[in-house]
């Protein structure tokens, strides 16, 4: 990697690390697409070779891209809310909307042809979406149910929605740097590999009411940011069946990440938070000279990460230490299946138009509504539009817009486990919008 490229990657990594409260569009907490071209096509990208985001989509695509650089930013706006109603104790009923709704999410990719059949590049991308920032004070402090869970708050301000003190929320940011090598096996087929180098940062606030259920209450909440690093690998294949049809497939291993030591009393496996295994397959069909239709299927295996996939009801509720052990409570995310459909139309030599749709099964069940007040990743449907406009033969601007339709999950409050079913029902909601712009340069 050249010194210039190292500097660029370093700057992008620093931006990702320093950006406060980075959030992402969600299939669970994976982005709906990586790279502005894919984002305009509902995320469909496995069998497409349009930009330098193969390290996130399909490493084998990079050798078809040529010498190229892409840099962009996405304005992302998730609107999240939570409500508890129907509690026999009226002090438990309340609602709140999460603040911190506007986020800037950077993206970067670079590719260099080593010769006609080999390329070396890098993709810098992120995950997130487990992000909330409720101001707190939604529940009155008048000696009700919350006082039993958080007596230390009795002399202070009103409680937050989870009976904690002060603001309530979490912030998770995951940054992945993917150096990518791709090789043309012959004129129609390629393979690629991307070592995945991960950095993640996390903090949690306002969870004091769960101190009595933590194996390490001193490392449960309000500890500020903690970070960890780790690694994994993504491999991919791309094949041009004929002039009309291209297929692709990619597999990413679970990324083994270091533990969040400041939150080993919250996450299962004493602060463990690996990035889940995922894989995708896709097909792109050139319907005519101007129109290409792309279809992807993606599988994300959240259940393979205990802190994410373990049910929030795990272990006997009468046992104190149910937060932190290997089999302790998690967020209850199920594995998700994502279908992505995109259409690209070459309106002219300079202007290419795109549209897309993706659907995923909601990873959060009603059983886990309480824990996911702080991580309401309930989105199922994304609708997208986008375009690329060529500034000249070697440079272009790409934009993409996404709207994720509001979805909600309701379920019996986890507090009912301890209060004899007097704590009512909780509902979590989210919808999202994003608008991004990227500059691409061929060289």
UniProtKB/TrEMBL annotation:
It is found in: Cell outer membrane. Keywords: Cell outer membrane, Membrane, Signal, Transmembrane, Transmembrane beta strand. GO terms for molecular function: long-chain fatty acid transporting porin activity. It is a multi-pass membrane protein. The keyword Cytoplasm does not apply. Residues 1-25 form the signal peptide. The keyword Signal applies. Coiled coil: none annotated. InterPro entries: OMPP1/FadL/TodX. GO terms for cellular component: cell outer membrane. Its main location: membrane. Pfam families: Toluene_X (PF03349). Belongs to the OmpP1/FadL family. PANTHER family: OUTER MEMBRANE PROTEIN NMB0088-RELATED (PTHR35093:SF8). This is Long-chain fatty acid transporter. It comes from Sulfurimicrobium lacus.
């Amino acid at each position: 990697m050249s010194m210039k490229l190292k500097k660029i990657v370093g700057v992008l990594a620093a931006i990702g690390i320093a950006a406060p409260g980075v959030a992402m569009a969600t299939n669970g907490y994976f982005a709906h697409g990586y790279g502005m071209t894919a984002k305009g096509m509902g995320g469909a990208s496995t069998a497409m070779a349009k930009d330098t985001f193969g390290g996130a989509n399909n490493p084998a695509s990079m050798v078809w891209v040529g010498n190229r650089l892409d840099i962009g930013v996405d304005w992302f706006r998730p609107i999240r809310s939570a409500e508890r109603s129907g509690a026999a104790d009226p002090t438990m009923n309340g609602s709140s909307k999460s603040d911190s709704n506007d986020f800037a999410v950077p993206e970067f990719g670079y590719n260099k042809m080593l010769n006609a059949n080999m390329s070396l590049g890098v993709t810098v991308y992120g995950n997130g979406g487990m992000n909330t920032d409720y101001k707190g004070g939604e529940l009155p402090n008048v000696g009700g149910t919350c006082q039993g869970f958080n007596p230390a708050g009795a002399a202070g301000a009103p409680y937050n929605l989870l009976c904690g003190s002060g603001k309530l929320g979490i912030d998770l940011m995951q940054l992945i740097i993917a150096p990518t090598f791709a090789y043309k096996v012959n004129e129609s087929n390629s393979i690629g590999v991307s070592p995945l180098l991960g950095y993640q940062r996390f903090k949690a606030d306002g969870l004091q009411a769960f101190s009595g259920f933590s194996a390490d209450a001193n490392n449960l909440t309000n500890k500020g940011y903690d970070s960890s690093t780790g690694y994994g690998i993504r491999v991919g294949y791309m094949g041009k069946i004929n002039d009309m049809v291209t297929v692709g497939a990619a597999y990413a291993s679970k990324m083994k990440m270091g533990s969040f030591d400041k939150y080993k009393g919250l996450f299962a496996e004493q602060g463990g938070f690996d990035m889940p295994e995922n894989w995708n397959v896709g097909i792109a069909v050139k319907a005519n000279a101007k129109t290409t239709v792309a279809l992807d299927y993606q599988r994300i295996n959240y259940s393979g990460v205990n802190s994410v996939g373990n049910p929030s009801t795990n272990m006997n509720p009468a046992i104190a230490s149910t937060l932190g052990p290997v089999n302790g409570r998690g967020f209850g995310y199920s594995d998700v299946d994502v279908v992505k459909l995109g259409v690209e139309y070459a309106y002219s030599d300079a202007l290419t138009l795109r549209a897309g749709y993706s659907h995923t099964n909601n990873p959060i069940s009603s059983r886990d509504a309480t824990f996911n007040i702080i991580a309401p990743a309930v989105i199922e449907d994304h609708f997208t539009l986008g375009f690329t406009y060529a500034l000249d033969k070697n440079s272009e601007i790409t934009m993409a817009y996404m709207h994720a339709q509001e979805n909600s999950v309701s379920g019996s409050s986890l507090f009912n486990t301890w209060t004899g079913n007097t704590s009512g029902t909780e509902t979590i909601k989210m919808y999202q919008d994003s608008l991004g712009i990227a500059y691409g340069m061929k060289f």
